[in-house]
Write a structure and sequence with these properties.
heterodimer; A: 113 residues; mainly beta; globular; B: 112 residues; 11 strands
């Protein structure tokens, strides 16, 4: 069975500081990994995804994530936080053709001025 | 670009009533997924359809049923509603069961 663990339900950073949101996964087969962002009262928007190939994945809004198989991790980073980055971020894993996606519990990112 | 359309956006029902949520996928997408997101919770996978056939099933209660129609839109039918069914219901669509899912804005269901 697949699972996703997001470390830290809340993360607070100052504007301009590095953003690091942690995600570890468990999967018995090579996973597909995703990061989604959710703004209040809105749907989920795909930030980036890893399927195969290059382990460093670049997404929208300056975010990137690195797939580390040895650490079963897929942490999300952004060099410089912006106020507009404040939102809920979900890490997700899917296998077997992607019909079923398992989401982590989410990390709420706060950005301080 | 066209996105996933969900209707209604908001729905208020009484306990024991029924509700039908509709999802219209992005054109040419053949896969639909349904998720339930409770207050402060992560989205929970309910069910998915590929080419009008159920492709996977998650934590969907027996009181709920869903189907995908010939035009690829999908409906989630919920009967004997309970207070705990109050949540945001998301539909997502994709192509060929591949990795990327595009989410709709959700339907907020409130059961009184």
């Amino acid at each position: 069975a697949q699972s996703v663990t997001q470390l830290g339900s809340h993360v607070s950073v100052s504007e301009g500081a590095l953003v690091l949101l942690r995600c570890n996964y468990s999967s018995s087969v090579p996973p597909y990994l995703f990061w989604y962002v959710q703004y209040p009262n809105q749907g989920l928007q795909l930030l980036l995804k890893y399927t195969t190939g290059a382990t460093l994945v670049k997404g929208i809004n300056g975010f990137e994530a690195e797939f580390k198989k040895s650490e079963t991790s897929f942490h999300l980073t952004k060099p410089s936080a912006h106020m507009s980055d404040a939102a809920e971020y979900f890490c997700a894993v899917s296998v077997g053709g992607g019909f079923k996606t398992i989401f982590g519990a989410g990390t709420r990112l706060f950005v301080k001025a | 670009a066209a996105g996933v359309i969900q209707s209604p956006r908001h729905l208020i029902k009484e306990k024991r009533e029924t509700a039908t949520l509709k999802c219209y996928p992005i054109p040419r997408h053949d896969t639909v997924y349904w998720y339930q997101q409770g207050p402060g919770q992560d989205p929970q996978f309910l069910i998915s359809f590929y080419e009008k056939m159920q492709s996977d099933k998650g934590s969907i209660p027996d009181r709920f049923s869903a189907q995908q129609f010939s035009d690829y839109h999908s409906e989630l039918n919920m009967s004997s509603l309970e207070l705990g069914d109050s949540a945001l219901y998301f539909c997502a669509s994709g192509s060929g069961g591949t990795d990327t899912q595009y989410f709709g804005p959700g339907t907020r269901l409130t059961v009184l």
